[in-house]
Amino acid sequence: MFFHIVLERNMQLHPRHFGRNLRENLVSKLMKDVEGTCSGRHGFVVAITGIESVGKGLIRDGTGFVTFPVKYQCVVFRPFKGEILEAVVTMVNKMGFFAEAGPVQIFVSNHLIPDDMEFQSGDMPNYTTSDGSVKIQKDSEVRLKIIGTRVDATVIFCIGTIKDDFLGVINDPATA
Amino acid sequence: MSLAADSPVHSSSSDDFAAFLDGELSSASSAREEALDEDGQSSSPANEEAEDENASCAPEEEDEDEGDLESKRLKRPRMEQLEVAECFEESATDESLVHNSEASTSKEICTHPGSFGGMCIRCGQRVAEESGVTFGYIHRGLRLGNDEIVRLRNTDMKNLLRHKKLYLVLDLDHTLLNSTQLNHMTAEEEYLWSQTDSLQDVSKGSLFMLNLLQMMTKLRPFVRTFLQEASQMFEMYIYTMGDRQYALRMADLLDPRKEYFNGRVISRDDGTQRHQKGLDVVLGQESAVLILDDTEHAWAKHKDNLILMERYHFFASSCHQFGFNCKSLSELKTDENESEGALACVLKALRKIHHTFFDELEDSLDGRDVRQVLKTVRKDVLRGCKIIFSRVFPTQFQADNHHLWKIAEHLGATCTTELDPSVTHVVSLEVGTDKSRWAVKHNKFLVHPRWIEATNFFWQRQPEENFPVSQQKNEGSVPPNAE
């Protein structure tokens, strides 16, 4: 799920960035530092949408670096248990398949794949129904439900299922 | 106010959703609350109201909830509300379990067949990390319990046998290729720098410079044909003692189109025991696995599955590493024979084993054991030979414990210590011994011990005249696999 929240960060800036562009430098550094990172508390920071305030800078003893407390608005993404997500399959093997929803890694084990889908090995391993009408392989798009999440400092793991109504393949690259 | 009690009745997912959302928000991310509370926008009456609304669970609540996310997140949870929320979360989880529980057959306890990132792959609950075997080579954070491995092996086995395939585990270094670090290359090898093949189209070349790893790699002659043919009969794994990065890079060179290995690349980082290779991380039943490796002691527990390979030393550094003081193939500007090299011979043997396994055995497919087949096929190689050793073992040595003796017996030869007319081969290091002279006199084969080793590597009886016993004692300085 996406959230639009305000976060705060202490930015350290080298004195060479001072001058009339200080603010721009601060913002571009903030974007470089923060966007795409993951925090255990909030999930992935997808994008910074605005700067709320930049506090007074404080010179650090001995280095000349200046610390600015910056409050910024950003969009974060955090998966929740029970959430329905759409994801792209990255790897299929006999244990199940791995999928990605943006930066989130999701594993769907073969316990949670409908029983009528069977694993087919080969150079393009896949799960296929007995009549061959539905096929999950690499790059398929699936709709799945998150049944477990673990948010670490840098990475989010999820367990998903497609063994439920309205879940499963939504777009098959082979037929597209 | 009890969603928990009501929930089985109106189990619309929106209820779950609202309740769970509450739970998640209040319990899991207290941090966010902190951050937001600092904004000072929380007010407890509104809070309670919201909570009540949630609890009463009017379905139309959902819209409002979603639209009102902002205010919801701004709630400051008081202690008892936290508890309530947690109850909700639990009940919600229970219920969601029931929901998707064609999956987990109602409320029975999940056996936690494996974990991914510390969560059960079946029910999503947190599990202790210790149990099971890590499968880091498939995906970071994946672990499987022993029961699950057995289950997967069994189902996979049926699948595989239906496709008439077995498993083949391949070593990299000295088996399929030879690598050297750039700074270990000798002056005589410098001509190779100009001969490296382009990395653009890997499938054509065989000598590659890998700047990132500071290495030069030479693929063994015939390896492309070998992989192509073997992939028809086997599901193949790479298992190397190199590190992960190296293993993946080599897999790219060997299999640029990713048709052979498909994520089945195991490096030393993935093994369960140090300095040992084990089949526990291979998702195949041991009775259907063949191993191709040049190092016997790495597979202490799986000697019966192992087909020992003759080491491929292309670079000088590799020869030195194993104590050969001779010119390497690269220094001699030569290479193994493409059509008669070790890989070609092993491929023939593999074909034979595969054929025997699927087409000649009478018993049911499930009961067959490739290790037995391996033994029988090997036993055919020197069938009918009777071997006697002379000056090969130290005097006090228990003869039938010697590895040459064992190899010879594995190859189907009969070994003896008594000279009699039925002996066909005398294996000797010297021409001057009684037995050697007896051999010459009675027109028997007199061969160097290396004949046995070569026969073992090539899976066919080698021409005896290529392994004469010479006069001088010291003549072991021919490169091991030069033509």
From TrEMBL, chain A:
Family membership noted in the UniProt record: Belongs to the eukaryotic RPB7/RPC8 RNA polymerase subunit family.
Which domain of life, per UniProt?
A: Eukaryota
Where would I find the S1 motif domain in this sequence? 79-159
Q: Name one GO molecular function term.
A: single-stranded DNA binding
UniProt domain RNA polymerase Rpb7-like N-terminal: residue ranges: 8-64
**Protein name per the record:** DNA-directed RNA polymerase subunit
Q: Does the keyword Cytoplasm apply?
A: no
Cross-referenced SUPFAM superfamilies, in alphabetical order?
A: N-terminal, heterodimerisation domain of RBP7 (RpoE), Nucleic acid-binding proteins
Q: Which UniProt keywords apply?
A: DNA-directed RNA polymerase, Nucleus, Transcription
A Gene Ontology biological process noted in the UniProt record is: positive regulation of translational initiation
As for what it does, the entry says: DNA-dependent RNA polymerase which catalyzes the transcription of DNA into RNA using the four ribonucleoside triphosphates as substrates.
Cellular compartment(s): Nucleus
Q: Which GO terms describe its cellular component?
A: P-body; RNA polymerase II, core complex
TrEMBL record, chain B:
> From the Swiss-Prot or TrEMBL record, what is one GO molecular function term?
RNA polymerase II CTD heptapeptide repeat phosphatase activity
Q: Where is the composition biased (Acidic residues)?
A: 48-68
State the needed cofactors, names only.
Mn(2+); Mg(2+); Co(2+)
Q: What UniProt keywords are attached to this protein's entry?
A: Hydrolase, Metal-binding, Nucleus, Repressor, RNA-binding, Transcription, Transcription regulation
- Record PROSITE patterns: BRCT, FCP1
Gene3D superfamilies the UniProt entry points to? BRCT domain, HAD superfamily/HAD-like
Localisation? Nucleus
Reaction catalysis annotation:
O-phospho-L-threonyl-[protein] + H2O = L-threonyl-[protein] + phosphate; O-phospho-L-seryl-[protein] + H2O = L-seryl-[protein] + phosphate
Uppermost EC category: hydrolase
Its assembly, as annotated, is:
Interacts with RAP74.
Indicate what this protein is called per its UniProt record: RNA polymerase II C-terminal domain phosphatase-like
Q: What is the lineage of its organism?
A: Eukaryota, Viridiplantae, Streptophyta, Embryophyta, Tracheophyta
